[in-house]
C-alpha cells in the first residue's frame, strides 16, 4: 500500500481579504519576514519590522504602507492611528500529495498551491524517496528514475507494481493509478470496469492500462 506523507498544511482563517495560494499585495514598499520595508510618507517615518508585530502595539509606519510576512498565506499588518492592525487572510488549502508518485518534471501547482514535499516508497518496507513541487511549478524527485516494475501513466504519474494506469476520456483526458482489480488474472474490462467510476464505461483493458470513456460527453 502506498502512503504519501504530506508535510505541510495551512490554517484557513475568517475571510476579510480573500486569496488563494500566493498573495501579491500592491504596495509602494513592503517588509517581509526576511527583510526591511521602505520608509517615509505621510503619517509615519518607520520601516516595516523584520518580524510580525503584535496587533495593537504602537507603530510608526505610513498608513498606506502595508507590511506582509510570509510567502503563501501572509500575515498583513497596517499602522492605523499609531497602532498595528492585522488583516486576516483566508487561503485555500494546498492540494494534497498525489496518491501515486508524480513523475520528475511533471507540472504541479507550485509550493503555495501544493502540499510539498511528498514522500513515497517504491514498495512496502522499501527505501523512501521525496518529490518536491518547486517555484517553477514542476515536480523534482530525488530519485528521477522509475521504481522497478512501475510504468508511466500519462505525463504526470508513475503507477507502481500492482497498480494499473486508468485513462478517463471526457472533454479531455485525466490519468490516475488504481490497484489492479483483475490480478492474478489478465486485465480485462469484465473485471476492471468498476474502476472507471460513475458516468464512464470501460472501452479497453490490457496489460497494465485501462481506457474509460464518458458516453454522455460525446
Q: What is the count of distinct domains?
A: 3
Q: Percent helix among the residues?
A: under 10%
Strand content: 25-35%
Q: Any idea what the shape is? A: elongated
Number of helices: 1
Query: Spatial order of the strands in the main sheet?
Result: 1-7-8-9
Average of pLDDT: 82
Uncertain stretches: 1-43
User: Any idea what the radius of gyration is?
Assistant: 24 Å
- The rounded distance between the terminal residues' Cα atoms is 36 Å
Largest sheet: 4 strands, antiparallel
Q: What class, by secondary structure content?
A: mainly beta
**SSE run:** EEEEEEEEEEEEEHEE
Question: How would you characterize the overall build of this protein?
Answer:
Helices cover 2% and strands 30% of the residues. By secondary structure, the chain is mainly β. A four-stranded antiparallel beta sheet has the order 1-7-8-9, with no helix packed on it. The chain has a four-stranded mixed beta sheet with strand order 13-12-15-14, with no helix packed on it. Strands 3-4-5 form a three-stranded antiparallel beta sheet, with no helix packed on it. β12 and β13 (173-179) form a beta hairpin. The radius of gyration is 24 Å and the shape is elongated. Mean pLDDT is 82; it is low at 1-43.
Amino acid at each position: 500500500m502506498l502512503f504519501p506523507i504530506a508535510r505541510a498544511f495551512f490554517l484557513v482563517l475568517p475571510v476579510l481579504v480573500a486569496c488563494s495560494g500566493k498573495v501579491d499585495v500592491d504596495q509602494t514598499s513592503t517588509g517581509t519576514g526576511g527583510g526591511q520595508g521602505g520608509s517615509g510618507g505621510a503619517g509615519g517615518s518607520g520601516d516595516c519590522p523584520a518580524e510580525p508585530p503584535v496587533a495593537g502595539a504602537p507603530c510608526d509606519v505610513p498608513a498606506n504602507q502595508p507590511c506582509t510576512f510570509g510567502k503563501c498565506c501572509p500575515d498583513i499588518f497596517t499602522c492605523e492611528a499609531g497602532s498595528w492592525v492585522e488583516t486576516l487572510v483566508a487561503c485555500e488549502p494546498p492540494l494534497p500529495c498525489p496518491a501515486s508518485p508524480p513523475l520528475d518534471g511533471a507540472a504541479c501547482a507550485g509550493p503555495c498551491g501544493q502540499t510539498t514535499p511528498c514522500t513515497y516508497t517504491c514498495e512496502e518496507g522499501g527505501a523512501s524517496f521525496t518529490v518536491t513541487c518547486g517555484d517553477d511549478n514542476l515536480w523534482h524527485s530525488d530519485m528521477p528514475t522509475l521504481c522497478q516494475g512501475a510504468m508511466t501513466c500519462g505525463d504526470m504519474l508513475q503507477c507502481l507494481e500492482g497498480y494499473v494506469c486508468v485513462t478517463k476520456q471526457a472533454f479531455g483526458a485525466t490519468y490516475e493509478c488504481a490497484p489492479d482489480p483483475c490480478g492474478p488474472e489478465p486485465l480485462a474490462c469484465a473485471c476492471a470496469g468498476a474502476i472507471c467510476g460513475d458516468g464512464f464505461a470501460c472501452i479497453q483493458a490490457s496489460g497494465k492500462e485501462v481506457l474509460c470513456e464518458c458516453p454522455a460527453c460525446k
